Amino acid sequence: MNHHHLNPTSPNSCPLTPLTFLERAATVYGDCTSIAYNNATFTWTETHLRCLRVASSLTGLGIGRRDVVSVLAYNVPALYELQFAVPMSGAVLNNLNTRLDARTIEIMLRHCESKILFVDVHLRVLAQEAVSRFPPGIRRPVVVVIRDGAHERFTESVSLVPQSDESHVNDAESDISTTYEDLVEKGDPNFQWVRPINEWDPITLNYTSGTTSSPKGVVHSHRAIFIMTLDSLMDWSVPKNPVYLWTLPMFHSNGWTFTWGMAAVGGTNVCLRKFNSDDIFSAVDRHKVTHMCGAPVVLNMIANSPNAKPLENPVHFLTGGAPPPSAVVLRTESLGFVISHGYGMTEVAGVVVSCAWKEKWNRLPVTERAGLKARQGVRTLALTEVNVLDPNSGLGVKHDGLTQGEIVLKGPSLMLGYLKDSHATKMCMKEDGWLYTGDVGVIHPDGYLEIKDRSKDVIITGGENVSSVEVESVLYSNPVVYEAAVVARQDEFWGETPCAFVSLMGKANSEDIIKFCRERLPHYMVPKTVVFMEELPKTATGKIKKFWLRDMAKNMSQSKERSRM
Hints:
It comes from Deinandra increscens subsp. villosa. Pathway: Phytoalexin biosynthesis; 3,4',5-trihydroxystilbene biosynthesis; 3,4',5-trihydroxystilbene from trans-4-coumarate: step 1/2. Residues 22-419 form the AMP-dependent synthetase/ligase domain. Belongs to the ATP-dependent AMP-binding enzyme family. Helices cover 31% and strands 23% of the residues. The chain is an alpha/beta fold. The protein has 3 domains: 40-198, Rossmann fold (3-Layer(aba) Sandwich), CATH 3.40.50.980; 275-454, Rossmann fold (3-Layer(aba) Sandwich); 458-564, ANL, C-terminal domain (GMP Synthetase, Chain A, domain 3). The strands form 6 sheets. It has a 9-stranded mixed beta sheet with strand order 2-1-10-9-11-12-13-14-15, with helices on both faces. Strands 4-3-5-6 form a 4-stranded parallel beta sheet, with helices on one face. A hairpin with a 2-residue loop joins strand 21 and strand 22. The longest helix is centred in the last third of the chain and has 19 residues, at 546-564. The radius of gyration is 24 Å and the shape is globular. Mean pLDDT is 88; it is low at 150-176 and 561-565.
C-alpha cells in the first residue's frame, strides 16, 4: 500500500482535551440538572456559561497559558466549575488538600508559583495564614473568595493580599478585590476558551497527599486526562444521566476524573461540603443517587452507621486507595451498595486496574465474593500494561498468588512528571519503560492482581515477610473493630514484629485482639502489640497515615530500650 500521503493533518490531529465534554453536555443535556447543592440546582447550560464567564474573567486578570491557579475548597459547586473554568483560560489547575496546614499550603503555593488562589469562605483563615507566611519579595497569589449562600455576612468583596506588603505585586494585581461570583457576573458568556496548542500541554497539578511525608507535584496533560476520563466511565459502566454523590474529595486526583466524566455522560453532581453517614443516606434517598466513590474509610462509615437501612435502589460504589477489608465489603453490600474496587494513584490520574467482575462469581458464597472484590484485578482498557516485577531479577513474578514483587505500570494516563523534580521523576519513571508504584503485589493464576502492601509497609519478622494488609483484613473481620492499621515495631530478637493500632466500636482489650488474630493467622503474623486509639490519623483522602504510626511504634521501641538501660 502506498501510504506516503497518509500522514497526520490538522483535521485528524486536534489536541485531545476533556474540556470539550462540557460543550457537548450543554448541547445534549442542556436542560438536565448538572449540580445539586443544598436547595440550589444548576443545568448543564448554566454550568457551561458560568465556566466560560469565569475563564473570561481569569484571562482579563492576566492569567494565561501554563500559569498555575490554585483552589482550596470543599466539594461545593464552584470547585466543580473550576475544574473546567481554570484550564479553559489556558491555566493549569491546582486543587489543594483542605486538611493541610498553613505551612504546607504555603510551600505548595510557592513551589508552583500560583498566580491566583480560590478559597472556600470556610477556609479563609487557613488561606490567609498560608499567604501571610510568604517571605518579603516573593510574589503572593491573589486570593478570590468562594462565598457560601448560607453565610451572607461574608458576601463583601475580600482580598487577602496583605496591604502592608504589596511592593512586590504589580499594580493590576494589587487592585484585585473580588469574589468568585463577581468573576461569574463580569465574565463574557461568549468567551472563546483557550484550547491547548498540543495535547501534551499540562492541564492539572496535584500534590501527592498519600501516606508519605514529602508531597510532590504531579503534572498531567490534556491527553492523559481525556483518555483517563473515558476509560473510567467505560470501566465502571457508567450510563447516561447518572446521579453522582460527591463523597470523594474533588482535590483527590480531580475526583478520579469523574469531575469531567459527569459532563461526558450528562450526570447530576450532588455536592456535599462535609458529610457523615446520615448525610450520605439522606442524599441517596433525596436525590436518587446511583453512583459514588470514596476511600475504604467511607465504606467503613456506611457499614457501621447506627442508622443504616437497606437502600430502595442499588448504589454503585467505587472504592480505591487501601484494599477494602472483605468484612467491610460484605456489610456494605448487605445494605444494597454494589461495590467495585479499583487501583490507581495520583501519578496515573485515576483507576487503572480494576476488579473486572465475572458472571460465574455471582454463584459463589457471599464471603468468597467479598474476598474477590477486595482484589485489585486487571488493567483497564486504556492502560497499556501492568506487571509485578521481582526486585532482584527484574522479571515478572509467577502467577501463583504467592510470589511478591513491585507493581509497575505503563500507559497513556501516566503523568508528565513531577514539577521541578527531574530526579524524583526518573526514580519513578525509569528507562526500562515502567512507572514504579512502590506497591507490593501478587498475580493470581487467573491473571488478577492483588496488592499486598506498600514496599515500606512489609514487616520482616524472623526472616518471614508479613503483609500488614492481610493482618488488617483479619482485624477488620472482628465485629468490635472499627479501624485497624498494622506497622512494624522494632524487636531485639525478631528484628521486627507486627504492631496493631485499632479503634473500637465495642469492648475489647489487647489480649482479646491478639487471641482473635491467633485463631486466624500463622503465629508469626499475629500482632505482638496492640495500641488502642479513639480515631486513627488519616490523610484528607481517607488513607491512614502509616508514617505517623511507624514513628509512634519506633518511639515505643526506643522508650522500651531506655527503660532497660
